[in-house]
Amino acid sequence: MSNESSHHWQLTPGDQLTAAELHQALELRCAVFVAEQQSPYLDVDGHDLSPSVLHLRGVQGEDLLAYARILGPGVIDDDVHLGRVVIAPIARGRGLGDALVAEALHHARLHWPDTPTTLEAQSHLVTLYARYGFVAVGDPFDDGGIEHQRMHLPRTVTSTRRTVT
Questions:
Q1: What is the distance, to the nearest Å, from the Cα of residue 85 to the centroid of all Cα atoms in its chain?
Q2: What is the DSSP string of the chain?
Q3: Closest by alpha carbon to 13, among 45, 57, 67, 55?
Q4: Is residue 132 a contact partner of residue 161, using CB atoms and an 8 Å limit?
Q5: Contact call for residues 102 and 163 (beta carbons, < 8 A)
Q6: What is the reported pLDDT for 157?
Q7: How confident is the model at residue 162 (pLDDT cuts 50, 70, 90)?
Q8: Per-residue model confidence as pLDDT tens digits over 16-45
Q9: Which long-range contacts (CB under 8 A, 24 or more apart) does 91-95 make?
Q10: Is 83 within 8 Å of 72 (Cβ atoms)?
Q11: CA 23 → CA 27, 44, 91, 92, 103, distances in Å?
Q12: Out of 9, 44, 136, 139, which residue is the most buried by the measure of CB atoms under 10 Å away?
């Protein structure tokens, strides 16, 4: 693997995602969420190929290091939804999680500037999302054996944290 700072971001609408890109994203999501975290759940939910869904990929060469899925308004409800936020095990400890959230929020604001953003954070990551203005909504809940917290970012909050690499 080359220098850690040489990764770059790729943003692709769901209806323009190649089979190889989708496979790579599903492989990473399954490796981390299902296998590593031992959380058996049905990842394929019918949203990945929607034109209203953006796939943010942090790549280095052929390697997918970071990934997030941004669902536009109307896919689930009237909010933008940030989900499937994941860092490859080989890329952890580089600050990519923070950079990924900043990049995802940047694109959410560019595409849907007046729309609130919602996510369901694994509870140990609540403080990460809170740094971007997300606030907890309701009680924590179990999702696939992992405690999660629904969080909401009002449309009036614009994050100034963004890392471009």
A1: 3
A2: ---GGG-EEEEEEGGG--HHHHHHHHHHHIIIIIIITT-------S-TT-TTEEEEEEEETTEEEEEEEEEPTTSSSSSEEEEEEEE-GGGTTSSHHHHHHHHHHHHHHHHSTT--EEEEEEGGGHHHHHTTT-EE-S--EEETTEEEEEEEE-TT---------
A3: 55
A4: yes
A5: yes
A6: 52
A7: very low
A8: 999 999 999 999 988 888 777 778 777 788
A9: 91/4, 91/7, 91/58, 91/60, 91/63, 91/65, 91/66, 94/4, 95/163
A10: no
A11: 6, 11, 19, 21, 22
A12: 9
User: Whole-prediction pTM value?
Assistant: 0.88
Instruction: Write out the two tokens for 16.
Output: 């323009």
